[in-house]
Amino acid sequence: MTKNIGIIGCGWLGLPLAEALLKDGNHISGTTTSEEKLKILKTKGIQPFKISISEDGIKGPISEFLNTASILIINIPPGLRGKGPKESYIEKIKLLYDAIKKSSVKQVIFASSTAVYGEAEGTVTEKTKPAPNTASGVQLLECENLFRNDEHVQTTIIRFGGLIGPNRHPTTMLSGRENLKGGNAPVNLIHLDDCIGIIKSIIHHNHWNAILNAVNPQHPTKEKYYTKEALKRGLTPPKYKSENNKTYKLIETCSPFLINNYDFLTSVN
Asked: The domain that contains 90 carries what CATH number?
């Protein structure tokens, strides 16, 4: 059965996700802030909309876009790192939320992050109480709660681990660095292909009003994993400080839905 799906943010994850959902026979509409990207979306068969969201307002035909969809995927990263002035992510999402309330959208998938767990130690599951300690984590959790507390929109929140995939891997930034901490810490990563597969599975099974930790079930140590990945790419492996035993954060899903309905496609071992 064809579904009408809207994707806000057709970037590194959003564009290949749109293509995958389109191949399944769905009608896909997507947003971009770039005039050039509009042509790319249209060429791929995605109904394009040029929309930008800031804390001061939404520019573009947001109502027209939202009314093309009954399912909306919100894939807007907080963007609170780096230099320069920072916009309020929660204010941007509140504006979007208000527009959603006036639209035909019935279900929402909100792309969040395991950053909401902060510096938790030991095994972390969806039942672990979030305790964010960064600006992005704090605002992501506030946005999650905005949708979770709404009884009229069915929302599934996906807390993604560190994203890896084409042209995106931490090894490239860590190469050659020395005296790094946390070499014994487990990696909590997920590949682009699995991000797409999990979202498709949620839609296919109508799995709404849920929170899912989307992290690969394999957790080699950072030192082992990044050394292997650096050598695979012909890069200088990072070097870690020796350290005393410490309990680090290991994120896993205990969601029966993911355990029973999804097999991870990509290994991180």
From this structure: 3.40.50.720
d(CA 214, CA 159): 6
Looking at the chain, the number of H-run helices and the number of E-run strands are 9, 13
The set of residues, in sequence order, having a beta carbon less than 8 Å from that of 216 and lying 6+ positions away, is 161, 188, 189, 190, 191, 194, 264, 266, 267, 268
Number of domains in the chain: 1
Burial status of residue 247 (CB atoms within 10 A of its CB: 0-12, 13-18, 19 or more): exposed
Tokens of 57: 């307002």
pLDDT in tens, 81-114: 444 446 789 999 999 999 999 999 999 999 999 9
Residue 121 has a CB neighbour count (10 Å cut-off) of: 11
> Looking at the domain assignment, is residue 255 inside a domain?
no
Return the structure tokens found at 111: 């792309």
225 within a domain of the structure (yes/no): no
CA distance 152 to 155: 9
Q: Which whole-number Å values give the CA distances from 50 to 59, 61, 135, 151, 265, in the listed order?
A: 8, 8, 28, 30, 33
| pTM for the structure as a whole | 0.95
The amino acid at residue 87 is E
